[in-house]
Amino acid sequence: MIEDRFLARLQHLIADGQRRILGLVGAPGAGKSTLAEQILEALPGQAVVVPMDGYHLANVELERLGRASRKGAEDTFDSAGYVALLKRLRVQQSDETVYAPAFRREIEEPIAGAIPVSPDVPLVITEGNYLLLEHGHWKDVRPLLDEAWYVDVDPVLRTQRLVARHMRFGRDEEAARNWVQQTDEPNAVLIDSTRHRADLVFNWSE
């Protein structure tokens, strides 16, 4: 369960009833999705999660671009599309439901229109790796966030989680460890370099 001090911060953020966007940023396996789910449970009916992963490029496009072996890197997402969605979500229309894509790990593909964001939901939680980057279309994400929290965890535990995740979705142990070292960890180094742009660090060890 999310600590009272973080919950109080969120309640203050949405106290005026206006639409707010919270960004949860962190390396692969840091626990962003878990934190997002805890916030949903703590604020029933007041929040919705819109993950950045919904903007993964489709596998067929990654193959065409020669980027399939680096899936998860910053250039394997439709970053411009993600920014466009955040801009729509900031404008709280009285009668419009905005639909966001989701990412399904069991098929390793994004699914369009899977997440409805109703106009009366005050808090949109968006979680992903590259929300604090300062180049490309990614640089336009931070100004659209009312708050950004950097989610951190012990790196050994994070690596163990990643290996287990990759194995759960079809890779053998050797392939899972290779993917973590060759793809996830280089991405993690880049993501960690952006933590200074966050409003606070949420550390799972605390």
Automatic annotation (TrEMBL):
Domain Phosphoribulokinase/uridine kinase: from-to ranges: 21-203
InterPro entries hit by this protein: P-loop_NTPase (IPR027417), PRK/URK (IPR006083)
Keywords (A to Z) from UniProt: Kinase, Transferase
Keyword DNA-binding among UniProt keywords: no
SUPFAM superfamilies: P-loop containing nucleoside triphosphate hydrolases (SSF52540)
Keyword set includes Kinase: yes
GO molecular function, one term: ATP binding
PANTHER family recorded: URIDINE KINASE
Protein name: Panthothenate kinase
Species: Paraburkholderia phenazinium
